[in-house]
Design a protein that fits this description.
mainly beta, Porin, 15-stranded antiparallel beta sheet, 15 strands
Length: about 290
């Protein structure tokens, strides 16, 4: 039979503070403390990006909790902060959407339009790291050209986990390349990534297309996923939607998405144990920024 239902979700709502302090000699102290608020469930705070660091002509150095360079390198997800964001897709996507604690990170200054980003998570003995493997639980590196806000954007990144307990006690190696072009109201991008989980390989292609017309932006997203035959995580996703700007800080959106049975069953937006050939969802949302 068909599985239907309705939910109320607070997707990635957050509050926080950020700032900087001039230390003289072209040096600044920077900080950010951001928390997620899940108003639908009554959960008040969950940790997001939280760090302190130093910034200057040499770039920026951070320590604390932060998105990995791998995550930062992706092109713009037009369905971000909704039920069809990349983090809701299949495991190849989810493994790359990480925000890690105990991180030491470096962001280079602008090098002719290119920025280099590196992050390392030291072995602190609490993440299940094989003692003979390496000095870090995680190494994440990225090279980024341009900006996702306008013009051409190109990036490449890699992640390497070593027997991390948070990842099920397995090792992961991931690579990602992204490209995006934005001009006038048009935004088009694509991203390809591969994942090797202790010998089990997978790949994913994601593409977004949107066109802003005044306060309205129609958009479409396509994703296809392929993993080893024993993983049961192969298929495709198609999503369409429209964003509408209600004011300077407020917008509304309507999204519709459909998964193949195999891909949907392994996503975060699946209907549990659904027997349908495809899984579809509608989402109506309101976003306010302050």
């Amino acid at each position: 039979g068909n599985d239907t239902g309705m939910t109320v979700d607070s997707v990635a709502s957050r509050v926080g503070v950020k700032g900087s302090a001039d230390l003289g000699n072209d040096l600044q102290a920077v900080y950010k403390f951001e928390f997620e608020v899940q108003m639908d469930k009554g959960d008040i705070l969950k940790n997001r990006n939280q760090y302190v660091g130093l910034a200057g002509g040499f770039g920026t150095m951070l320590m604390g909790r932060h998105d990995t360079p791998y995550k930062m390198s992706q092109a713009k997800d037009l369905f971000n902060d909704g039920v069809f964001e990349n983090n809701s897709m299949t495991s190849v996507m989810q493994h790359g959407e990480d925000r890690v604690s105990n991180v030491l990170a470096y962001v280079s200054p602008d090098l002719g339009g290119v920025k280099l980003i590196g992050a390392f998570v030291p072995d602190e003995g609490a993440e299940g790291l094989d003692k003979d493997s390496s000095l870090t639980n995680l190494t994440s590196l990225a090279a980024i050209y341009g900006s996702t806000k306008k013009g051409l954007f190109v990036s490449g990144a890699m992640n390497s986990y070593s027997d991390v307990a948070a990842k099920g006690g397995k090792s992961y190696n991931m690579m990602r390349v992204s490209a995006q072009y934005s001009v006038a109201g048009l935004i088009a991008n694509t991203m390809y990534q591969t994942s090797d989980e202790s010998g089990k390989e997978g790949s994913n292609i994601t593409a977004n297309l949107g066109y802003k017309m005044g306060d309205l932006m129609p958009k479409i997203k396509y994703a296809t996923n392929s993993e080893d035959k024993n993983s049961g995580n192969t298929g495709s996703f198609v999503g369409v939607g429209v964003d509408y700007k209600l004011g300077k800080k407020t917008s509304a959106y309507f999204d519709f998405g459909s998964f193949d049975k195999e891909m949907g069953a392994n996503s975060k937006v699946s209907a549990a144990k659904s027997t349908a050939d495809s899984i579809s969802k509608y989402s109506i949302g309101l976003i306010h920024k302050f």
